[in-house]
Amino acid sequence: MTTDKELQLFESLADAEYRKAFRDDIATGLAFQIRAMRDARSWTQEEFAQRLNKHQETVSRWEDTNYGRYSLHTLKELG
């Protein structure tokens, strides 16, 4: 069953400009969440990267609000 709120979102996503803003908001939110997750554990980017078997530069990229190229694989690694 589709709610009114879901129908409104589907209709809004038909607009290309809205889709772009929606996508950008998601990317920004992910960057902040990744940083918050790391900060909550008092880890440096280097420590976080080592725990994920990544380079510090990768963590820096993930925390950049302009990055926006997260893959499902990346998000699963963070989980």
Question: What is this structure's SSE topology?
Answer:
Blueprint: H1 4-12, H2 16-40, H3 45-52, H4 56-62, H5 72-78
In short:
The chain is mainly alpha-helical.
Overview of this structure, please?
With 79 residues, the chain is an all-alpha fold. Helix content is 71%, strand content 0%. It has five helices and no strands. The chain has helices spanning 4-12, 16-40, 45-52, 56-62, 72-78. Helix 3 crosses helix 4. The chain is elongated.
Low-confidence stretches: none
So how many helices?
Answer: 5
**Shape assignment:** elongated
Give the DSSP E fraction (strand runs of 2 or more residues): under 5%
Number of strands: 0
Radius of gyration: 16 Å
Cα-to-Cα separation, first versus last residue? 29 Å
Characteristics of this structure?
79 residues; mainly alpha; 5 helices; elongated
